[in-house]
Design goal:
The protein is mainly beta. Helices cover about 10% and strands about 55% of the residues. It is built from 1 helix and 9 strands; from the N terminus they run H-E-E-E-E-E-E-E-E-E. It is globular, with a radius of gyration of 16 Å.
């Protein structure tokens, strides 16, 4: 009975309630303008969200972007096996929000966004862990 209660307790907690490898700071790939950024991913409720915390120009110099402090990823739900979905990804260079999916593999995070289900998809590339 005790095991059953513990299992129910853990099952009832949101996936973000446990420490997760996705939590941390990630460097994006260069966008259409050659800029890239650092996205800090943290739990937000039972999901994960990511905020642009630092911006770099095409030469790698730090600059203050108008998108600094903006959520770039939100409502990403852990689906098991390093996969996350059901969330949104914002692309600053295209000023577009996509239905998002992410897949974690070690220190790499592959990001993808789609419009209208699976059509109009765009790769957000593979982000690298900063910390």
């Amino acid at each position: 009975m005790k095991r059953l209660m513990l299992a129910a307790l853990f099952a009832g907690l949101g996936s973000a309630a446990f420490a997760d490898d996705i939590v941390g700071t990630w460097q994006t790939i260069k966008d259409d303008n050659g800029n890239f950024g650092h996205i800090e991913i943290a739990p937000c409720g039972a999901a994960f969200c990511g905020t642009l915390v630092r911006s770099f120009d095409s030469n790698g110099a730090v600059f203050t972007s108008e998108n600094q402090g903006r959520q770039i990823v939100w409502d990403m739900v852990a689906q098991g096996g390093g996969k996350y979905g059901a969330g949104k990804v914002y692309s600053p260079d295209r000023d577009q929000t996509y239905g998002g999916k992410m897949e974690l593999s070690g220190n790499s995070l592959t990001v993808k966004g789609c419009l209208f289900g699976q059509t109009g998809c765009r790769s957000g590339g593979t982000w690298s862990r900063v910390n």
